[in-house]
Amino acid sequence: MNQNGIAVVLASGRPIESLALFSQDVLHLDTFKIGFNGAIVANQHGKVLAMELINNQDVIEVTRLAQQLGINVNFSTPTKWINFSVQVNDDRVDKYNETLTEIRCHSLAQLQLLMDDRPIKVLKVGMHIVDQKKLWVMKAAMQGMALNVVQSDREFLEATRRGISKYSGFQQLGKVYKWQADHALVFGDYENDYELIQRAKYGVAMANGLAKLKSVAWQVAPTNDEDGVAQIINKYDWVMPVKEE
């Protein structure tokens, strides 16, 4: 693809480092990367072009609600995961536990102490909530904050700063490289892909994706298990240039 002048962009709720490994080990391509659902954007060489942070007051409020509901929360920062867990497995914890990649907090007071101790840059909030009633209570409450709240699966709730999404990440790349949504072929299957599918001229929803995505998509691709992405790319000659007769 790269040799044919096609830029490949990976957009995900995952961190940039994870997308870089996937690009190298699986795709064997140099890809542009939109991580944490648009909160961080990098070029094909890994240079960060944009980073959008969640307000610390919203971080505190999400933690307060999570503590009330008994929900564990993962806060993504550029360098660490802050895991807020209501289950304390170590009675000796009196501040917070920290490793090279992770910080663990077990109360709102501990998180506040951590934030007073150092500047915290939270890019994304993530929660795995099996109890659907709790999920909808948390989702409704977070929608009242300065957050963009989406589900990346039936039991996974994610949030970035309001106005930040995979589509806003694509817009950031567009400003730098003069790209337009009319020239992009994009694929998605869940709620965090909705805006991108809706706004791109060639938005493709996967057959295994949500009905609301299919309703706004240009095309519906076969499922992931059927290599639906590859089928659409090959069908419309997005990889190989069309040969002149």
TrEMBL record:
Protein name per the record: Uncharacterized protein
Which Gene Ontology cellular-component terms appear in the entry?
Answer: cytosol
Question: Which Gene Ontology molecular-function terms are recorded?
Answer: magnesium ion binding; phosphatase activity
What SUPFAM superfamilies does the record tag this protein with?
HAD-like (SSF56784)
InterPro entries, A to Z: HAD-like_sf, HAD-SF_hydro_IIB, HAD_sf
